Recover the amino acids of this structure.
């Protein structure tokens, strides 16, 4: 399974984390020994922080991408691709992550 930067996938985060949409932020790995992907989770219960990115996406319920909690998981946890963000939408999430990390 291949997941590319800017795609939104339905992800199985286990019993506690639920199944939820997440944005692929990492690039495709050059090292095939470690099939990992870094994600920014989407929530339908935003808290109103400046690190949440609210986007109107046709294939997602109303909510936000939370830049404060990037996670890296095995590609095997990806269930199915939901869609792809436009370049300007991806840039907004990238900006929020950079701000959160002080980059």
């Amino acid at each position: 399974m291949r997941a590319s930067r800017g795609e939104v996938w339905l992800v199985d985060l286990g019993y506690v984390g639920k199944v939820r949409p997440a944005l692929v932020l990492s690039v495709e790995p050059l090292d095939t020994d470690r099939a990992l992907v870094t994600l920014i989770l989407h929530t339908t219960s935003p808290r109103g922080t400046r690190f949440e990115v609210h986007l109107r996406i046709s294939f997602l319920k109303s909510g936000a991408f939370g830049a404060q909690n990037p996670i890296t998981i095995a590609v095997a946890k990806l269930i199915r691709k939901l869609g792809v963000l436009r370049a300007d939408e991806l840039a907004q999430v990238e900006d929020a992550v950079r701000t959160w990390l002080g980059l």
